[in-house]
Each structure stands twice: as structure tokens, then as C-alpha cells.
Amino acid sequence: MLQSIEVRWPDLRERVATLITPERVYRYLQCIGDVYAPSQTVPWTRGPVVEQLLHEDGLLGLPTVHYSSNYRGTGNPALLLGGDLPDKQVWLMSHLDTVSYLVEPPVRGLYPLTPVCYHLATGERRGLALEFCQGRGMVPVARGVITSRAERIEFRPDHPVELRAGHRVVFESQMQWDRSTGIVEGLLDDAGGAAACLVAAGVLAHYPVEVLVSLADEEEAPPGAGNQTFSRGGKRLTQHFAAPQLAVVVDSHVTGDPAHAEPRDFRMGDGASFTEKASGARGGFVSPPLMALQRCLAAELGAAGLVVLRENAGGYVPRSECVNAIERTPNIIVTGFLNENRHFDSGPPRGHIGDLTNVARALVYYTLLIGTPEWTQLFG
Fold it and tell me: Are residues 239 and 326 in the same domain?
């Protein structure tokens, strides 16, 4: 399988090694992750940051690269490789928004919060209240503490301030990379997945493939059991595109959460993760042919020393854009990186730069499976 890809694209190995490095992945990760992007704000917050990164790397000057921070008014950024057309062979899917909270009227100086996410934090965490400013995006108006006790989630400002509807509260965070251990801390969910998709796109832009990089907003939606509460932004985006041959969904995969089983013999720093199902199959799940194909590809990439891609057996992977992907194609892949404290559960979110680098490299090879004899034999 790897041989089929490299016979077709003999310069691929060198290009991947040159363009997908921990330094480049971290540059994208830090630039994206250090911009606060509550749901429904991405076109004015992280969307322009993505555009600047693509410009700096010379991608926006290529005739095969098309980017919009608010694609067709859907509220979602989208990067198109190939033609500016709705027919794409592969979708690479992540999300750009972060966990956030709506503000309710104050009670004795404390602001009750309504989560626009799955709330997982316990105790106290530093937080920021943000408001929208034209031309500047979401800017801080107050610092304080987010408290979580029983069913009550509240924001206690450090100083008196008047907050109201339209303000959003987020966890305060700055991206950090410990180069001695490879550990990165900060808003990784899903800046990590977005960074991996965009860095992979920097390689794929040099090959004649049709790709949609979906950077959805409103992924971190209000909690609910049904898939309708998930990925609503992505639904608005993907309706503008024909069904792909393959959809690859990239997000954080849980580790270090006592409420869920740990991946078997798999820790942060061990490589990119792929799995069969999301949220116990409530989200997307992967077909047997694609699981077999991934295992084969992972073995070949590992033996060649190109990508470390590990099967996440026994661990928990949350729902994400897979709920949209599986409605359009049975050919989905659920991949990502191990992430501790993804929603500030018991501390700052943590991941590993090596895992994110391997995710970006894996995305290139996943995409270029299209058109190989192995793919055509299975899927036509």
C-alpha cells in the first residue's frame, strides 16, 4: 500500500519530512490555540489567524488553494485544495471553536454560567469574560474564577464588572511546549486537530487531489444525548459539498480521565491514534474494510520509520465531526491525538507534540490512499 503511494508520488517522503516537523506543527498550534474562540465566533477569531498562517507559508498564492473564513455564510472556515468546486475526494475534518459558557444575570456578585459544551471541570479554574469588538474579535473584559460545585457553574470576577448576554466566559490558557518532554499544554481541543489538518494541507497542496479541510465552528455545542446537538456548524458547511470518497475526522482522544477506560498499552507520546468508534458508536464508527486498511497502512508506515500510527483499543473517543461525516459516506476514519484534561477536567489540557506531528503526517498518507489499487479494489 505504501509502495503504491510512493510509486505514484516519488517525492512524497522527502516533502513530508521537510514540511511536517514538530516546529511547524507547534507554530500552527500556538497561533490557533492562543486565540480564544467561543462557539459562533470562529470567523472573527481563529478564522483570520488561519488565513494569516496560510499566507505566511505561501499557500494562498497557489492556484489550487482556496480559503474562506466564513464559507458561504455558514459560520465555518473552509480550505479547499484543487478546484474551487463542491466535488471533493477527501474531507479532512476538525473544529476550531473551544469550550465556552453563556452568562446569566448575577446573583450576589456571581454570574451563573450556561455551558456551550460538555462541562467537565471540577473545583476552580482561572477564566476570562470576553466580548465582541468589531475588527478585534473577542476581547477580554474581565478576569476571574470559574467555579464548579455540584450542578452550579459560576464566574466570579476579580473586580466588579457588568456582564450581560453576548459575553462569553472561557478558561484562561496559553500554549506551552516543554521541549525536554514533548508535552504541550493549552487549548488543544481542537486546535491540535486543526493544526494537523492545516500542516498536512501544506503538503497535499502540491499534489492533484481534491480535498476539503473543514474547520467547523459550533462543534462544542450544548450537551445532549442526541447527535443533533453536535457539530451543527459542520452540518451547515458540508451540505454545500458532494459526498466524498473518504472523510477523515481529527479530534482529541481521551486519556487520564477516571470516568473512562485508558487505551491499552498506549500513552501520550506513543504516536497518532486511530479507533473504530466514537462515543461507544453513538457517533461515527469505522467499517471493517477501512479498519483492516488502516492497520496495514500503520504497519507499513511504522516499518518504514515514516509515521507512528497506533490503534486506540479500549480507550474512549468522544463524538465530533464524525456525526456529520457518517451521514454522507460510509468511508470514515476516526483519528487524532491523546489529550488529558481536554475540557480542563482536573487541570490544564495536555498532549504531546510528537503525536500531533504524526497525525499531520498520517493525514497525508490517508488522503493519498485514494486512487491506489488497494483503495480501488475495495471501494471502486
Answer: yes
Choose the final residue of a domain: 113, 146, 171. 171
Structural contact between residues 184 and 173, judged by C-beta atoms closer than 8 angstroms: no
Scored b (16 or more CB within 10 A) or e, 191-208 reads bbbbbbbbbbbbbbbbbe
The three-point CA angle 332-334-251 to 5° equals 130
Residues 192 and 336 in one domain: yes
Average confidence (pLDDT) per 10 residues, the chain, 380 residues:
96 98 98 96 97 97 96 97 96 94 95 88 93 94 93 94 96 96 94 97 97 87 58 90 97 83 91 91 90 97 98 89 92 95 87 98 98 92
Q: Verify that 19 and 152 share a domain, yes or no.
A: no
Q: Which of 124, 141, 171 is the last residue of a domain?
A: 171
Q: What is the 3-state composition of the chain as percent helix, strand, coil, each rounded to the nearest 5?
A: 30, 25, 45
pLDDT at 260: 80
- Give the pairing type, strands 183-185 and 176-177: antiparallel
Cβ-based neighbours of 89, under 8 Å, separated by 6 or more = 209, 210, 211, 244, 245, 246, 370
Residue linked to cell 476571574: 144
Q: Is the pTM of this model over 0.70?
A: yes
Alpha-carbon span 233 to 331, nearest angstrom: 21
Contact 91, 72 (CB under 8 A): no
